[in-house]
Write a structure and sequence with these properties.
137 residues, J_dom_sf, mainly alpha, Helix Hairpins
C-alpha cells in the first residue's frame, strides 16, 4: 500500500521538511614542495649552534658550552622564550654530538654528503658481489 506524503503546514510550505548541512570547508591540497616553499625556513641545527655544516665534534661541543653559558634560563633570567631557546639549543647539541643521529639528520636534510658504507662499484649501500659470495656452499 502506498501512503500519501505527509502534509506540510501552509506557513512552512516554502521550507524543506529537513535540514541541509552546511557546506563542508574546501580542502586545499598542496604538494610537499609548495608547502615547504610557503613555510618559513626553520634554522638548521648547525645554524642554531652557529656552526658550518661540516663542523667537528670538538667545535660542536665548544659552541654548545659557549651558548649554554649565555642562554641558560638561570642566566638569561625572565627573558621571553629563553627556556624554549635553550631547549632548542640542547636538542641541536644532542643530535649533532651523536655520530649516528648526526648522520641520519644530515641524510634527511640532504646537506652534507656522506661516504658510501660499502666500497663496491655498485654503491647504493650494498656490498659488491663477487664470485665467492655468489656460490652456494
Amino acid at each position: 500500500m502506498i501512503s500519501a506524503p505527509p502534509r506540510v503546514p501552509a506557513a512552512a510550505a516554502g521550507t524543506p521538511p529537513f535540514r541541509f548541512r552546511s557546506a563542508p570547508a574546501p580542502i586545499r591540497i598542496r604538494c610537499a614542495a609548495a608547502a615547504a616553499a610557503a613555510a618559513p625556513a626553520a634554522p638548521t641545527l648547525y645554524e642554531v649552534l652557529g656552526l658550518r655544516a661540516g663542523a667537528t665534534v670538538r667545535e660542536i661541543k665548544a659552541a654548545y658550552r659557549r651558548l649554554a653559558r649565555e642562554r641558560h634560563p638561570d642566566v638569561a633570567g625572565a627573558a621571553p622564550g629563553a627556556a624554549a631557546e635553550f631547549v632548542r639549543l640542547h636538542d641541536a647539541y644532542a643530535t649533532l654530538s651523536d655520530p649516528d643521529s648526526r648522520a641520519r639528520y644530515d641524510h634527511d636534510r640532504g646537506g652534507v654528503a656522506r661516504r658510501p658504507r660499502w666500497g663496491g662499484v655498485s654503491g647504493y649501500g650494498r656490498p659488491r658481489r663477487t664470485w665467492e659470495t655468489d656460490q652456494c656452499w
